[in-house]
Amino acid sequence: MEISPNAEPGSYLLVGNDDVGAWLAQPIKVMPPMDFKKLDCLISADGKNMKAIAQLLPRVDDKIKVSLAVADGKSNSLEATAKKDLPLTLSLDIPGFTAGKRMEGAVTVQSMGSIPFKVERKFDNTMLVCRIVAEDAQGAVNWSEVPAVDISDWGPWPKPIAPADCSATVKTAVGKSGFHLLVDVTDDFHYQIASPASIWMDDSVQIAFDMDASSPWLYNNIGDGRFNGHRIFEYGIAHPSKGGETVVWRWRADAPGMKANCTEPSVKTTVIRNGANALYEVFFPWGTLGLEESPKTGSLLGFSLAVNDVDKGNDRHALLLGNGIVDGKDPERFAKLFLVK
Question: What's 34-125's CATH class?
Answer without folding.
Answer: mainly beta
